[in-house]
Amino acid sequence: MYSLIAVFALVSIAAMLLLTPSKASSQAKSAAVKGFVIPDSINKIAQKSCIACHGDGGKAMAMGKVNLSKWNTYTPDKQISKALDMCKQVTKGAMPPKGFKASHPDAVLTDKQVKTICNWANSLK
Fold first, then answer.
1. Which of 19, 47, 67, 115 counts the most CB atoms within 10 A of its CB?
2. Which residues lie below 8 Å from residue 76, measured CB to CB, with a gap of 6+?
3. Which residues have C-beta within 8 Å of that of residue 22, sequence separation ≥ 6?
4. What percentage of the chain's residues is helix, strand, coil (to nearest 5)?
5. What is the pLDDT of residues 87-111, one digit of tens each?
């Protein structure tokens, strides 16, 4: 009798494990939020002027504002907000920061690049 109960319990546990979505697969689904893709024109600018700090392995404070490596995990509303803030920061000249620009003069954004970022950000609204 006890062995029958034990077998039933093992089969029940095995069924639950096999039929329950794994934590990894549910995390993968939640990480793939549909939203806006960063276009190549913005990606080229970001690779040169932003990713060092605002990408995986970047500065903690910068990644706290926006982590471009995790862009696809943001909700569409958050993507719009982040893109508009990027426009605001580059328009003010606050990004890239002075210290980064001093040590990476090729990272300084041109007026055309600032306009490209802002046009993209405003197109998301």
1. 67
2. 33, 34, 35, 36
3. none
4. 75, 0, 25
5. 999 999 999 999 999 999 999 999 9
